[in-house]
Predict the structure.
Amino acid sequence: MEHDDDLTGAETAAPAHGGYKIPALRALSEITASLSTDTDLEDLLERFLGTMVKLAGATAGAVRVLTPDGSHLRLVGTIGLPQEVIEREQYVPLECGICGTAASTHSIESAGASVCRESTALAYFGDACKRVIAISLRNKGRIMGVYNLFLPGDNPVPEDIALLFDSISEHLGMALENARLTRENIRITLMNERQMLANEIHDSLAQTLAYMKMRLAFLNEALQTGDAPLAKKYLGDVDDAMESAYSRLRELLTQFRHRMDPRGLIPALKDVADDFSRQSGIKVEFSNPAPDMNLLPDQEVQVFHIVQEALANVSKHSRAQHVRISVTMAGDQYVVAVEDDGIGLSGTGQTGVGMHFGMNIMHERAERLSGAVDVVSRAGAGTRVELKFPAASRRRPRKA
């Protein structure tokens, strides 16, 4: 956990009063840049620990973050501390000593090392370290963590450097809060995806299984009465439903393996079009004359899966040679269409459970967008699946 990078050019261990300004400006500049680029927040906190140690003229330092339950501070980085101190200080109660005071007052606290010696019984505090400084990391009144600086002398940090530390703590506290919100958003996204998968499986398979159960009851009755022709019919019904369920499950697994492109809906649709063309041998044209689509991530997922479902139907039933996917604007509505030059739905003879469920799922997804799906098909003239939903300025959120 030891770390001693020098990112600000603060070469001297104890800068003279007023001589910290250039390194300080570099530190603030780099913190601002790092807030939008660093993905490893704990590494960011540890790197700037070195800057603060040098600016304060300290010989050691530590940085701690608040545990998820809010009861303890967890050690995430140290510089210059003996191993026995590191082992003893992995977790400390939030209210402990000078760290607790800084956390409760949301300020910079300074005290003699005897405060820490009393709570730890470690000789380091009082021998090598004479003064301890605690700098709270905060965001909008919420404590996020604490920096500790361990000084060899008993002189307090100059006021101007303390003001600099106060500014740094606010910036890094903001970074910690942003990281917390990001983790929460990821958890919410994962929960939504799991719920969506559960809904898909229920919608696609539950009714089929119920149908199979009913047919099995009829099959059993036919066997008991010795009605061989009727038993054969019910056995065929069960076999067809089983094949439909198995096929639909494979489609669902394939769809959920194709995750949304992090760049957004349009790149994701281009990728799924390329994959479909490569796997099916059907030529796909993608057209996007609409301006940028201003959609929430969940709305993008709904559109993406509707297009996936439409392409799956093209692959299974249409016998098409060419497919066109288009994203356009019509008044205040987005229009997403999947058109093929195949034989049309009436020419496929496919009116079974699988297609019925696929259509139902597309309609349900469209409803979540406050929109609708229309399917227009003529024998020998292909099929057009068209999704229409209101643009962001006119869309009203749906209740769960």
About this structure: The chain has a mean pLDDT of 78. The first strand starts at residue 60 and ends at 66.
